[in-house]
Request: fold
Amino acid sequence: MEEIKMAEKDMKLIVNGKRLDGRNFDELRKIKMEVNVLERTVGSAYVEWGNNKVLAGVHGPREFHPKFLRDPTKAILTCTYNMAAFSVEDRKRPGPDRRSVEISKVISDALSSVAVLEKYPNTGIDVFVEVLQADAGTRCVSIVAASLALANSGVPMKDLVSACASGKIDGEIVVDLMKEEDNYGECDLPVAISPRKGDVLLLQMDGNLTRDEYTKAYNMAVDGSKKIYEMQKKTLLDSMVNFVEGEQK
Amino acid sequence: MEEIKMAEKDMKLIVNGKRLDGRNFDELRKIKMEVNVLERTVGSAYVEWGNNKVLAGVHGPREFHPKFLRDPTKAILTCTYNMAAFSVEDRKRPGPDRRSVEISKVISDALSSVAVLEKYPNTGIDVFVEVLQADAGTRCVSIVAASLALANSGVPMKDLVSACASGKIDGEIVVDLMKEEDNYGECDLPVAISPRKGDVLLLQMDGNLTRDEYTKAYNMAVDGSKKIYEMQKKTLLDSMVNFVEGEQK
Amino acid sequence: MEEIKMAEKDMKLIVNGKRLDGRNFDELRKIKMEVNVLERTVGSAYVEWGNNKVLAGVHGPREFHPKFLRDPTKAILTCTYNMAAFSVEDRKRPGPDRRSVEISKVISDALSSVAVLEKYPNTGIDVFVEVLQADAGTRCVSIVAASLALANSGVPMKDLVSACASGKIDGEIVVDLMKEEDNYGECDLPVAISPRKGDVLLLQMDGNLTRDEYTKAYNMAVDGSKKIYEMQKKTLLDSMVNFVEGEQK
Amino acid sequence: MNIEEYLRKDYVTSLMREGRRIDNRKLDEFREIKIEKGYSSEKAPGSAFINLGDTKVLVGISMGVGEPYPDRPTSGVMTTNVELRPIASPLFESGPPREKAIEIARVVDRGIRESGAIDLDKLYIEEDKVWIAFIDVHVLDDGGNILDAAGIGAISALLDTRLPKYEDGVVIRGEWEGKLPITCTPVPVTNVKIGSNLVVDPNLDEEYARETQLTVTTTDVINAMQKSGIGVFSSEEVDEAIETSFKKAKEIREIIEG
Amino acid sequence: MNIEEYLRKDYVTSLMREGRRIDNRKLDEFREIKIEKGYSSEKAPGSAFINLGDTKVLVGISMGVGEPYPDRPTSGVMTTNVELRPIASPLFESGPPREKAIEIARVVDRGIRESGAIDLDKLYIEEDKVWIAFIDVHVLDDGGNILDAAGIGAISALLDTRLPKYEDGVVIRGEWEGKLPITCTPVPVTNVKIGSNLVVDPNLDEEYARETQLTVTTTDVINAMQKSGIGVFSSEEVDEAIETSFKKAKEIREIIEG
Amino acid sequence: MNIEEYLRKDYVTSLMREGRRIDNRKLDEFREIKIEKGYSSEKAPGSAFINLGDTKVLVGISMGVGEPYPDRPTSGVMTTNVELRPIASPLFESGPPREKAIEIARVVDRGIRESGAIDLDKLYIEEDKVWIAFIDVHVLDDGGNILDAAGIGAISALLDTRLPKYEDGVVIRGEWEGKLPITCTPVPVTNVKIGSNLVVDPNLDEEYARETQLTVTTTDVINAMQKSGIGVFSSEEVDEAIETSFKKAKEIREIIEG
Reply:
């Protein structure tokens, strides 16, 4: 259990057409991105998204162990998602639990769908995601950070991975749920896409949505992802500019 | 603890010369056997024995890992005995406990004593036993199922393994204890033999038996095993007939 | 938690200038040493020190696993410190805990500093310490026993390792704390030295000591270690004499 | 992937280019579903043995008494565990649940939990005591699509489940209070992509040829979705999968409830 | 098995053909048994250090307070753990108890439990509180036949055990209520088959040559039996092993109790 | 050690012979220390992000309610855990805390515990209920000397920590009773020996060249010491390290408290 939910089931999540934190239905929380933030990784990124704080870093391509599981046709990309004990209000015991195993898998799957792994046969590429503060939507924040770190590492990618969740609260479809909305809402739909082609790389849902609500929510998540994509591109571009400027100094 | 035992210590287990389920002292519970019941194993068997339901299957001979533990003179046969969480009234936590480790070992030992392992040096033969419903005597049911599955897999065997338990209830020696008899009885003596030569392959006992009671109980268990042997032979024969008939169709 | 400490915080540890067991401030507990006490090790030792009883034994030099961690320039010496479940008043769960992992490491470090490991490249030397009864100061007793066992095994050593703790009780600096002194005292300072050169091989401290108290306590621990060194030498010498005498019989 | 697996995959893919499946099923056709409820009824309050083609899964329900979650003090608790037993495939290893088992368990769990299939509010006993429903999925023969088999088995076993009697702080084994209150029948349908086609209920050969997959669990609404595995869908493909999943779930629901 | 082990095995087997043992013992002769009760008496309520030939085992008893089993609310609890410490043999690895350690622990446990050696009914304290006797077997030097050494050590340590004082919900360490109530002295005797002979108390060389083994634990009746290892016995051999076990157990019991 | 590491080590050592460090610091000079208290303040009662040169460590404090130790029924409890996250170095592996992480955690813990930095007596709530302070050190980028970074981070985070409100047996999340009572500021200083010199705050290159190291944690007295690693100190070197540690701790304490 990530956090204890309070027993107030009839909490109103929409008041006067606005969400609890004053956002419109299609409005994202505040987002800050940065790459190249760690010294010991070949690529790294830091993303603040609402109250979420997530760090991602890449080691590799490097020797894959155990030997007999190596793939002679491509690198094996493994993402490890980890929450700091103090990232949630009720301390999380250190170490992987079932939830983090699942999130690690779906992020690994999404990144592996766009990275050109064929370039590095027999190796392993390890992407580490550290959730330093969690406030709903960590899997989308994590995949965005991981994708930035991977791009920053120089591993060639067919496309970036952008992600955003939508959901249903008080019967309305909204984008990018924060903690209270996630706890008391009726549905969560995280989506990750390769923004240039529009392919779906990650799609999960739990709650309840009619066929029509799904379409609306899906489109809202994709629209959110596209906004994220613009920020990701700018972040990577800025880092290159800084890099060039830094070199000239 | 496999199951919570009720606190009725003075429960009568023999009434008017009959056991609680109406059986005579030397009478086995109802037994049903079948082989070739799974698609992904090289040999398999299913045994219902009273309220026990046990499935056994064999993978291998196949590469043995880790390499440095391989035996260049023969295959290593490993049996893994496992109880489904819901096979007993009080849910059993999934995963091996000390009891199942011990039972796995004694079944491995018994099967290894009759299988011609020298034919497959450097390999491993894995026998899996799944207890789907448990009602006393599972180690005998398991060894009977495992032996059928191994025969069904085509691994050559010097003999089958037949098994049956006897025990003492209300001071009387009886064969094939069911749950209540096992819980409130004074002794349990599971025996596995190679029925043609009469060799003892498995022998365990706990409770209390005088020297004479032991002899009586041992003989009863061997007699039970011999009945089981007849059923095992018939089961294997029927499967071959079916196989031939099936081929002709 | 090694043992439950009683709630008597104002227990007097020094009465009439003497410690609870009648010792002077600079007096060690009774000590008994023996080597060559086990048959399956290449070297072994047994040390009784106050109420502590500790057995040490050495296997190796032998193949080191896993292969990729071998050191082609020297042997890897690993000490494993283990307390028997019944060695303390409140039963300790079997298996390594964080405390024993740390003690294993500091003993490994100390022994590795004097053993001529370069003589055995690619191998492992395993030193096992079994605490059979514990009564404060087990890390010093263990290192003394481990050093004797290593010497007994024939692995060449630049020097022995001698060890002794000092500490502060009722404001006074004393040597070799026993259980009550350790529980209610203000400080514990275990020291291990290579006695011929006087080098510090192990030094840990917890509690509180001023700069001057530290110097006094350190010197007391070194003096204790030197007494231990004399006993260690005598023990090894006696064992050689016995060995020669035994051969002549 | 060894050479045999590669050839199978190749064969499945080339057939699929002509719109054909290796066992001649239609693209949206399931294999035969056989459900034996009460398989372990002598010990387990609820159970169901599922044959989905030659995939075999046994699901058992255990009912225990424990503490509620602090945030829902009057609601029962459910938990789902999947064991990919090594007997089921030479490719499964012994040991603790791994990535794949955990993912299947969590997808099955979400379908049941989010649809409110178990009326957890009716599982309150007394202060700090509620019923815990343990859903244990035991995979015995992996002929492909174990996720759907597990999901079908779980809700079938729940529909079979009796609530034990509870008196004076003790569970009375073998005596029953009534049925476990079940409100609806969520059904997961897994759609796999092979070339440019989507098919349901892949057999083992089709799983080798699978590019990626999407599971959609529905009642009268969507309750859970999970894209799984490397590979991509277009949003049109996702829409198609949702349509198919609603349709097939309806058919399967009749088998489960029937 | 390396070449040295093979040669030892061969030598033991060929000697045995002439009815001789490598250390000249009679077939039913144990090595010298030395028992030091109270070895860890400063900390442990009961203990015994066993030398069986050059096999060394230390057994310690800890007494804790805990809950009874629900089905026996007024009986104490016992539990047996065996640690094959790596110091005891270059062949033992570090780590959690393995197959062999578990089997030994369970056979030792059954002998004590089934004979009723510990009068568990006298270990009741108050509602939901009973004494738990932890039997911890620490194997320190494996010169063969550690099972019998463990079993002899366990009952010796139990006979040495004092029951701690318990007042106002607290165990008073270092003060004692009396002795742990022990009713009888079960003794395991392990019979190994080498060629056509049965011998007791195998040393390490004989264990290499062993075909299979049978342990019989007796008081005035048989309380536990365990055939262990690959290989077979005839029923006559089993009978012989039982006879021998009764006889040797009687002799050993005198040493333990004496 | 690969060839690159060997060359670095060699370079560091040869510079040191001239009394120089690879980054031109004085022997007793720390790298720049940046402390951001309250980094995770939206969720954690206390936290601090530490940059020690390019070493990065985040420490978070969680406050839970639990049982006191039986021997100190009216005192709160503290516990320290260090996670060497694999993101921090290609040399760290995933998995449970290992030798190195445990040693660091225990040295950090001892400094805080033995100095009485947390006034545990003020963390009593009611019978059998006390506050537990969990100190979780998350190592994110290992540029050398993570022990000192962890220790500085731990006490900084404790100084940042608020005590949650506790009413009617429930912790009120997001409401605070006041600050966690902290009495002093223990600071660990790690001295490493390279050739015949002692230096503080080694960077990664200097750690390759390190012969052995001594950590001294001080307040106005010495509270903890730990020699770590193969290699030896003379007693004079130990004395020098203690002097240096007192001096540097004083400077660092001002940064922490400032």
